[in-house]
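tool=predict chain=A
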Amino acid sequence: QVQLVESGGGLVQSGGSLRLSCAASGRTFSSYFMGWFRQAPGKERELVATITSFSGTYYASSVKGRFAISRDNAKNTVYLQMNSLRPEDTAVYYCAARTLDTTEYKYWGQGTQVTVSS
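tool=predict ok
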């Protein structure tokens, strides 16, 4: 069982930066495949970035080159550094975790709001 708590959201101007954090409970955090998702009003939830237990990363094309996902297994925390933010990045951002034997993200955080003003 994993519990996830996101933090670091807020209001930022276009071109600015934010760093989201996701703190996880549990002793097996390092074995989990972690992801950041986002959902804007009226839109479906979309995958933003993922990181494997060995820190292999994947990014959606819309954020590649601007966002960076990382993890600190000693702190049971995954991060999303967001640079060059755009108004279209405005959304609720969710942290999620899954085990390696499934493609389903079983554990989700409560979400943190990111608002980018133009």
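The radius of gyration is 13 Å. Residues 42 and 116 are 17 Å apart (CA to CA).
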